[in-house]
What does this fold into?
Amino acid sequence: MKKLKMSIAAILLLAVTYVNAQDGHNHNHNTMKMDSKKMDHSKMTIKSDAKAEAILSDYFKLKNALVNDDAKEAAQAGSKLLVSLKAFDRKTYENLQQLELIEIIEDATEHAEHIVKSPIDHQREHFKTLSKDVTDLLAITGTANTLYEQFCPMYDKGSAWLSTSKEVKNPYYGSKMLKCGSVKRQIN
It folds into this structure.
């Protein structure tokens, strides 16, 4: 399914490029360096988007619920996150960024839906991929906040998440191993 999405995205990109070249427009796309599975987050944009900030706020509520081992609160935060994801407007971004955002939002929505209806262990499994999606979203949208990407080497062969604080509070283990992990990098 991902290969099909990537193929469609590539075809759309070629079509847009061709149309722009035919119209004599020279668009300067701020492209991210990507391989097929990983974005380069070293060049996060400076601008901030209010709807992206709403997604971040709901993501942090979800993360905190998982830190507190509260599956019910995590499900409620997941529901709010779904609303924020569906309200996100990608049209203010450049063509290539819009294509990336479509895939990111679609994947994040799928994982948030699972979080809403699952027990806590399964919520945490989906939170791992959701965290990657939110990090990828931030690479395009930027944020007005200082954030910290944190990493636990023990959960599922290594798992990252975002935090508003340098203090590590692990959403994958909660009270079992609250301090397991470290700050991987600061995002300004």
User: Anything to note?
Assistant: Residues 12-46 have pLDDT under 50 and may be disordered. The longest strand covers residues 147-152.
